[in-house]
Design brief:
The complex is a heterodimer of chains A (about 260) and B (about 325). With about 260 residues, chain A is α/β, with parallel strands linked by helices. Chain A is built from six helices and 15 strands. The N and C termini of chain A lie far apart (about 60 Å). Classes of the chains: A alpha/beta (about 260), B alpha/beta (about 325).
Chain lengths: ~260, ~325
Amino acid sequence: MKIIVCIKQVPDTTEVKLDPVTGTLIREGVPSIINPDDKSGIEAALQLKERLPGSTVTILSMGLPQVDVAMREALAMGADDAILLSDRPLGGADTWATSSTVAAAIKKLDYDLIICGRQAIDGDTAQVGPQIAEHLGLPQVTYVEAIEAASEEQLVVRRQFEDRYHIVEVKLPCLITTLSELNAPRYMSVGGVFDAYREKTVQLWNLENIKDTVDMDSIGLKGSPTRVAKSGTKEVKGQGELFEVNPDEAVAVILEKLTAKHII
Amino acid sequence: MSKHVFVFAEQRDGVVQKVSYELIGEARRLAGELAQQVVAVLVGADVGKSARSLIAAGADEVIVIEHPILKEYVTEPYAKAVYAVVQARAPEIFLYGATAIGRDLAPRVSARVHTGLTADCTSLAIDSETKDLRMTRPAFGGNIMATILCSNHRPQMATVRPGVMQALEPDDTRTGSITKFDVAFTDADMNITIRQVVKASKKAADITEAKVLVSGGRGIGSPEAFETLRALADAFGGEISSSRANVDAGWIGRERQVGQTGKTVRPDLYVACGISGAIQHLAGMEDAEYILAINKNKEAPIFGVADLGIVGDVNVIVPKLTEALKKRQA
């Protein structure tokens, strides 16, 4: 099975803190990581490769040249190839333009299965996976929480909903999006890290590589239907009252305030 | 020319989901500003009987697409149905719930239509000059608010999380039209096979519906402490919820997680017990009507959003508060 895993390098938003004085975001020193849902996608691909000998795992990402670090990490986990699509005109893309561009790159490759993480922690949109599937005309199964069976022809996966799950059979080629609950991604091995930097390469692609599959009107900021009109930190709600008293007094204060507000 | 505010009326087993009524309430307000109509799109196997409830909730028209292929949600048949409506009716705006269905369907439709889509919006407004839809959403873990426009493509599409918008009081005297809409499905549209549908055995408590939430963070110290919180929640007639840390630790189910990667809640009272208040958590609860925070650490960010902050040990204060409440009620 030829598997392509689409990944995104993201700032680790769980490490983001607020400046207690200004209430603004402290961005300095926030580490970049492989988006967690995508990392589960890589792990899922590697497990499929173990199940189906002869399979290959190719990592694909669009981003700045420094995404190389994330690509090396994926290679060190055990992926076979990595392609980083990076070009100035691709910047500022919304999900529509991103998915159009990534789909154009995928059209240049041989594949049976495309795996995307469900959503990235910096944007939380969950849109790029389904949009790639549409651009490629592939069946999609999103919110995959388990892979029950796999062959060269099809996958059987568990698709999560809020109140139920479906056991779904999907023929290849197809696209699935993975949840981080799907598995516990393996660590890089020492040998893997060595290979990732010495034996394996990250292919750097630019627009030239996808010129016959890409629609130049569908890339970057210019090709994005949506625009950010305004962005800013959230207004911080005014602080209420703070009491540092003994537990009995605390209970009395709580009851008094909740009664005054007609909550109890 | 594109016109009207459309809402995807999500249903499961024929039951219209609450988020759909909330979206219709919001669509009513937007349509009012545009002097246009609210159109609900109801897609399913045997769902026509629910159309009236959508009119009572504020829809002027309900487009009903019924077919056996639509019994369970599957991307392609649903995308085909919604796409056909977009083609036939050219909506100005199209709203979806940001659910495991809406977040699968809407991006697929947006790619097919070639229009933009803004995920998980927390507020929607009509620009007073251009009449474009201003879609505001949290990004970057919840602390940045971005306002998104989709000026040159129609429909302007957005998903909105359950619990964010307000449904109107149902009014059975409201009038509206019900339009049957045919889509030519073929067997090929069913491009996956559902082998099995497994429903959650008992309906998990929905924390987005609770009037009072007693929520535990890392500071409660042990999984057993949720029993203490449960007693307080019972005294309030509410539910328990959690920050992400305790969910990741396996102390409580993920369906009770509040925050950026969990659920957005806006109860009348939110009692944050031993929750430090990481921005990802605040993003999910700061719109609660009243926030009571109990935390040992005076510097905890949760106190920045709390209406009432108590510096102290939750495991001491919560049982005492429970007792005091019970005494009052006795």
